[in-house]
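Propose amino acids for all 706 sites.
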């Protein structure tokens, strides 16, 4: 019994000793990890050095008018080395003398913590003696400049221990404006737009530096003698004009909201050069808003009636018809090889018997299908080759990644059928991008010379131009006789009574040439049965001296009430054209300022307070029709008579300021909470926010006076 007790006593003693040893080991491990962890991390990390790459500052993308479209801005992560010489001398006297005032300054600057909280944070870092204590991340350049003047910090890195880790972030100052075209430089993600196309120019050359890794895996520069400075990226100047882009974006946005459209695009091309002055792409988001989510301008679709221009060029160039050749529109319904071609409207017997020019102006599917079938049924390859000669079978070659190739069918392919040719004549069974269509119409405006669209204008390095891009001429699309006839038809669409765009441009003060288009488009598995229409208008202006070609393509919601090209895309084109004519090519004084009662006088429009307008009209004894019921009114010409009408004004959408004097314009803008910037004197001829666009308090609007 005694032996058993003796053995048990020894076992218990061993167990207690082992338990104490284990407890000691666990305690020591906890102490090392939790209490001395930072110290040992510093010791370990300080023994690791390596050479790492330093990114160059990325170049800036500018508009042609000098606005920054995409730029890199510095952002700072602020750390403190609490083992800096100045902080450990005299038992930390320098830190203790400045911590109170520094905490107050930090609280006033960042406004995320109180002064006491910042003091507590700084004291904690000081006690820990960390070499890379994180104080604040994502500090802006302006904040950093203020921080450098704070107590302790202004004494320099060695005395204060303050370290700024600089990171460059990419910023698009205008956000929505041409966002998809400009693109975005994203870390660990594919770039898009110009950021992707010209990445090699923008990114520059990386540098190198020798660093030591300390606690938290943070790299600290060791010796600047080993550094190889990065070479900053080059700046690029685009052909985009920020004012034209804003006009285009706002005009498109207004119609998209009004018609609840699915997506759309608008392109403005400079006629003589092919420069893209604006390119807007808007897609409807789940919450009903719109964003530049995809480059619809470079996505092929069945173009519809705007393609009839290519058909007409082919027929005229091959001498198959003249503009006076007869064509019977069959009342708007024509049977061909078991299928039926329909016009958007039926025609009387008298209207049906017409000529080629009128069939084009009426946008008759039957007329163009009959003409193409009669001319090319025996040899459809000739028609296809004509389309290829217009570069409709290949990409435009614009300097922007992501352009998808078009589709032009040809005889002998598995898709070719007995009805392919007549359907191609009015824009079906073919796929082309809105940019293709714009390039074709631009060639007509440019006296038959087709030029390649482009976006890069200049490359700059340190303020000096090192490369300037020149327009690329492709070829002449037709002879002078055909060109003259084509121009006549495009002008007729906008001026001849009954033509598809006649009402849109009736009494227009400048000549427009263009073509409407309405196409039923397929929607995935639902096909053409979804009732989705694509509305288009493509044209150029002024028709007698073309400066710009504009293409507008909008895909409407299913079963939209309004879907014709002249009603949806046409108004967008007209608003862009009206603004650009005013902005770039001011109307003659007689059209801007006179209100002469004459059949020969042009369009005029003035606005102001109702009482002021009535007083002026009464004083100069001009008879007018008064239908105004609001405090602000406008006067314009209607059937050769002045009419005074109401001008709707509210604080949620941008009013029309065109024609207003500065006093009245300022009253309306400031009453709506807008911040106004004025250029010039006289009356308003241009406003940076388009009429009807949503506005918010504090938003900037720029007014240009004549």
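Proposal:
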């Amino acid at each position: 019994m005694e032996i058993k007790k003796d053995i048990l006593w020894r076992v218990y003693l061993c167990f207690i000793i082992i338990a104490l040893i284990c407890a000691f080991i666990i305690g020591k491990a906890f102490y090392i990890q939790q209490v001395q962890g930072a110290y040992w991390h510093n010791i370990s990390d300080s023994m690791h050095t390596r050479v790492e790459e330093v990114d160059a500052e990325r170049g800036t993308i500018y508009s042609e008018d000098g606005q920054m479209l995409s730029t890199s801005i510095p952002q700072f992560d602020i750390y403190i080395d609490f083992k800096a010489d100045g902080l450990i001398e005299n038992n930390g006297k320098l830190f203790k003398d400045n911590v109170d005032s520094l905490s107050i300054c930090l609280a006033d600057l960042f406004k995320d913590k109180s002064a006491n909280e910042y003091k507590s944070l700084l004291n904690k870092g000081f006690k820990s003696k960390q070499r890379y204590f994180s104080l604040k991340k994502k500090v802006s350049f302006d904040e950093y400049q203020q921080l450098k003047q704070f107590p302790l910090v202004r004494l320099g890195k060695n005395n204060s221990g303050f370290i700024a880790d600089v990171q460059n972030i990419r910023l698009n100052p205008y956000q929505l404006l041409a966002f998809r075209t400009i693109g975005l430089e994203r870390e660990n993600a594919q770039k898009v737009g110009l950021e992707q196309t010209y990445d090699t120019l923008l990114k520059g050359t990386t540098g190198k530096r020798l660093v030591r890794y300390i606690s938290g895996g943070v790299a600290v520069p060791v010796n600047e003698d080993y550094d190889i400075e990065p070479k900053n990226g080059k700046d690029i100047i685009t052909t985009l004009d920020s004012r034209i882009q804003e006009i285009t974006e706002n005009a498109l946005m207004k119609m998209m909201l009004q018609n609840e459209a699915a997506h759309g695009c608008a392109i403005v091309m400079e006629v003589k050069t092919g420069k893209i002055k604006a390119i807007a792409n808007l897609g409807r988001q789940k919450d009903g808003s719109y964003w530049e989510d995809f480059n619809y301008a470079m996505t092929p679709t069945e173009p519809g009636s705007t393609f009839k221009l290519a058909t007409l060029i082919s027929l005229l160039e091959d001498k198959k018809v003249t503009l006076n050749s007869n064509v019977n529109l069959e009342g708007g319904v024509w049977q061909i090889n078991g299928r039926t071609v329909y016009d958007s409207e039926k025609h009387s017997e008298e209207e049906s018997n017409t000529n080629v020019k009128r069939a084009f102006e009426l946008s008759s599917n039957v007329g163009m299908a009959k003409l193409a079938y009669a001319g090319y049924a025996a040899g459809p390859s000739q028609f296809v080759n004509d389309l290829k000669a217009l570069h409709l079978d290949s990409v435009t070659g614009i300097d922007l990644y992501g352009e998808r190739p078009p589709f032009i069918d040809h005889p002998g392919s598995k898709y070719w059928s007995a009805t392919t040719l007549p359907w191609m004549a009015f824009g079906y069974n073919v796929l082309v991008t809105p940019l293709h269509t714009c390039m074709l119409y631009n060639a007509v405006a440019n006296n038959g010379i087709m030029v390649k669209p482009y976006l890069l204008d200049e490359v700059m390095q340190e303020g000096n131009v090192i490369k300037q891009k020149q327009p690329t001429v492709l070829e002449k699309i037709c002879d002078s006789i055909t060109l003259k006839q084509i121009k006549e038809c495009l002008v007729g669409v906008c001026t001849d009574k009954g033509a598809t765009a006649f009402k849109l441009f009736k009494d227009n003060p400048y000549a427009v040439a263009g073509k409407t288009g309405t196409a039923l488009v397929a929607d995935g598995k639902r096909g053409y049965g979804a009732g989705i229409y694509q509305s288009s208008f493509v044209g150029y202006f002024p028709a007698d001296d073309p400066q710009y070609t504009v293409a507008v393509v909008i895909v409407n919601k299913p079963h939209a009430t309004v879907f014709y090209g002249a009603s949806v895309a046409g108004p967008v084109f007209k608003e862009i054209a009206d603004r650009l004519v005013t902005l770039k090519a001011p109307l003659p004084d007689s059209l801007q300022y006179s209100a002469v009662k004459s059949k020969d006088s042009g369009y005029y429009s003035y606005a102001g307070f109702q009482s002021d307008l009535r007083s002026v009209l009464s004083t100069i004894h001009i008879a007018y029709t008064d239908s105004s019921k609001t405090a602000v009114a406008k006067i314009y010409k209607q059937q050769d008579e002045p009419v005074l009408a109401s001008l709707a004004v509210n604080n949620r959408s941008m009013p029309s300021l065109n024609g207003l004097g500065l006093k009245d314009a300022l009253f309306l803008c400031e009453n709506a909470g807008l911040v106004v910037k004025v250029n010039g004197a006289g009356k308003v001829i241009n406003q940076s926010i388009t009429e009807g666009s949503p506005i918010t308090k504090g938003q900037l609007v720029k007014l240009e006076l004549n």
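The chain has 23 helices and 31 strands. The chain has four domains: 2-35, 50-237, 242-584, 589-705.
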